[in-house]
Design goal:
- The chain has eight helices and 16 strands.
- The longest helix has 23 residues.
- A hairpin with a 5-residue loop joins β8 and β9.
- The chain is α+β, with helices and mostly antiparallel strands and 341 residues long.
- It starts with a strand and ends in a 6-residue tail after the last strand.
- Strands 7, 8, 9, 10, 11, 12, 13, 14 and 15 form a nine-stranded mixed β-sheet that branches.
Length: 341
């Protein structure tokens, strides 16, 4: 039996079995966000998701209307308040129904988390917008068990500051360059400066150039020898929810953060790496591989490309510190859907 799933459109539950979230997004325009919910229906960092969703919808409406399902930009700016109200109405309905299905006698997922995807697209009703909510069961990976295996395989996204459904279809063009075993693809515009993953934000723990040495690596030296690097928004990346949480957590821990696109040519200074997303939260990186010649990625399939590999040794101590702090914050920053207005 397939795990339960729910699809809601403008507050009405679909009577049909919904597709996967990825399949649903692949064939529709719209801005979206994906959040993690506990088995009780509490949503992690939901106000941040709502704000980013509204920002994405406004950006697309006025600069890339076709990605929202509009032929031309609308005559007036989309309202954040109206978007949040419409989304929250459908979220309440969807979470209530999903919990009911998960608690059904023959289901074995009553204690599992949920993945909630909220989509806003152009419509003829509700101030010109339609809201769809997709919910499915989500079992998060255990931190430290399996690391991500990354491959540099594509260029940066159009309208990168927005999160939009058509990207699910667009990124399929990158699959020809995905080496076997790669679990995520990294994007770069020049073959050197890493922007982000296709569905994640990317970070490295980097030895500061002025402190390069062969001394043993220890947490005690982090504040003066190491820094966390991730691409700045101005380079053309998604303002990920977890990206911002990581920056805040690093500041709380006294770990230096520099918003600069990690340079592949300086990978010998990378001591740890990790990726983030709103579902997995944070995952350490086992390997990063990139083409020996960046030009090959545009014209060849993965098997015709010569790859250079950077290997890491498990979840490093700085990544682990950040993960523990994020886990602690997650417990205090859940939002009960019953309180949504």
């Amino acid at each position: 039996m397939s795990p339960p799933a729910v699809l809601v459109a403008d507050g009405a539950i679909s009577p049909h079995a919904p597709p996967t979230a990825a399949a649903f997004l692949e064939f529709t325009p719209g801005a979206y966000t994906t959040a993690r919910a506990s088995s009780t229906g509490a949503l992690l960092w939901w106000p941040r998701h709502l704000l980013r969703l509204a920002d994405s919808a406004r950006l697309l409406a006025h600069s890339h209307p076709h990605l929202l399902g509009l032929p031309v930009p609308p005559p007036r700016t989309l309202s954040t308040d109206s978007i949040e109200t419409l989304v929250n109405q459908s979220v309440r309905v969807g979470v209530h129904e999903m919990r009911r299905r998960m608690l059904a006698p023959r289901e074995c997922c009553s204690g599992d988390d949920m993945a909630l995807t909220a989509l806003v697209r152009a419509s003829g009703a509700n101030d010109g917008l339609e809201v769809c909510i997709h919910l499915g069961v989500y079992v998060p990976p255990v931190f430290g068990d399996a690391g991500a295996r990354l491959a540099v395989a594509g260029s940066g996204r159009e309208a990168a500051a927005a999160k939009y459904a058509p990207w699910v279809r667009m990124r399929k063009s990158l699959e020809k360059t995905r080496p076997p075993g790669a679990t995520e693809l990294l994007l770069t515009n020049d073959g050197d400066h890493i922007l982000e993953g296709s569905i994640t934000n990317f970070f490295v723990v980097c030895l500061k150039e002025e402190h390069q040495s062969n001394e043993p690596f220890s947490v005690q030296t982090v504040t003066n020898r190491f820094e966390v690097q991730t691409a700045p928004l101005s380079d053309g990346i998604l303002p990920g929810i977890m990206r911002q949480i990581v920056i805040e957590v690093c500041h709380d821990l006294g770990i230096p953060v520099r918003e600069v696109s990690p340079s592949w040519s300086k990978r010998e200074n990378w001591k740890e790496a990790f990726i983030t997303s709103s579902l997995r939260l944070i995952q350490h990186v086992e390997t990063v591989q990139a083409p020996l010649l960046w030009e090959d990625i545009e014209t060849k399939i993965w098997s015709d490309v010569s790859w250079v590999v950077k290997q890491f040794q498990g979840a490093g101590c700085i990544t682990t510190q950040i993960q523990r702090k994020i886990s602690g914050r997650a417990l205090t920053e859940e939002y009960d859907t019953r309180d949504l207005l």
